[in-house]
Specification:
The protein has one domain (about 10-230, about 260-355): Arp2/3 complex 21 kDa subunit ARPC3 (Orthogonal Bundle), CATH 1.10.1760.20. The protein has helices at about 10-35, 50-70, 85-95, 95-115, 120-145, 150-180, 190-220, 260-275, 290-295, 325-374, and strands at about 75, 80, 235-240, 240-245. It is about 65% helix and about 5% strand. It has ten helices and four strands, in the order ααββαααααββααα. The strands form two sheets. Strands 1-2 form a two-stranded antiparallel ribbon. Strands 3-4 form a two-stranded antiparallel sheet. By secondary structure, the protein is mostly helical.
Amino acid sequence: MHVPDGFLDAPTSVATGVIAAGAVALSLRGARRELAGSAAAGPTAGAAGPGAERTAPLAGLTAAFIFAVQMLNFPVAAGTSGHLLGGALAAILVGPFTGVLCVSVVLLLQAIMFADGGLTALGTNITCMALVTVVVAHLVFRTLLRVLPAGRSTVTASAFVAALISVPASALFFTLLYAVGGTTDVPIGSVAAAMGGVHILIGIGEGVITALTVGAVIAVRPDLVHGARGLARPLKLKVGGELVDAPAAPAAAGPAPRSSRAVWFAGLAASLVLAGFVSFYASASPDGLEKVAVDHGIDRGAEEHAVADGPLADYGVSGVDDERLSVGLAGVIGVGVTAAVGTGVFLVVRRRESARSAQDEAAARESTAGHGKS
């Protein structure tokens, strides 16, 4: 689904670049609260919640996991493959604003390090694969949670549906962009039908991967899943033969936040295995967009990538003759760099929110003290 350079004309590429930049800027602001844990803090929104210290590394891990799974193309039809887009998974695990940033980090590194997705098309890829998928998946997911009975199985099923729908939505949005600024004259109706059809199949795979991943994390640590917040049931006490809600414990007496290190290391290990070993066995068939582009002549406008001769281009290490080793090393490097860059970005965002919250609290205390003296 990575759009190469040359598929869209300059004005359309610039327009999607502006949209992508705006989406990233808005997400940076929204992610401050998600990464500070304030969304879970209820009445104390604005202050860092109990999970604030672990959210940035987990968001970085989410980006690394998406990078790894995107290397695993799976067959969906004769001569066609697909891979995870990751928007739904990121939105459900770490929140929609942070999710946009996760996928954007992955797309940026893929473009500049691995020649996957054009540089002038980066705005298009972020718009289609990060913004559209996250927005659509988040809306579908939250709607299903409101109308279905609460429970972990509902979260997992909703994740499947949201992920499935997000993929053809992204594909059809690209088709719309191509209708506006495509560089070759092709019948848009047939392109839309082909893009929609193959990406529904890819969406099924996306839904399965997303549901399995979300379900696995919920099974061990539901508190780490942004979309599963509120699943915990209130403690009941038996009084006079009847069950009543237990009184809320004072915040100071609450249990210390559980460490997420085990989940982080397990997730990183899984990402390294997927990218470093399993990726060698991925389908070599062209993905949905590549197949449609060849079949309908869209690829006639494609341009060579600016870093096509780079040391990691096409997910292989230059100078390493053993193909298995070359792909594996590229995957491991990609996971490591994505985890490091993603975690660094999210730590900066979270710390800025923590500093802002501290300033707000100090100002509030000063204001209260001033009123007390008067």
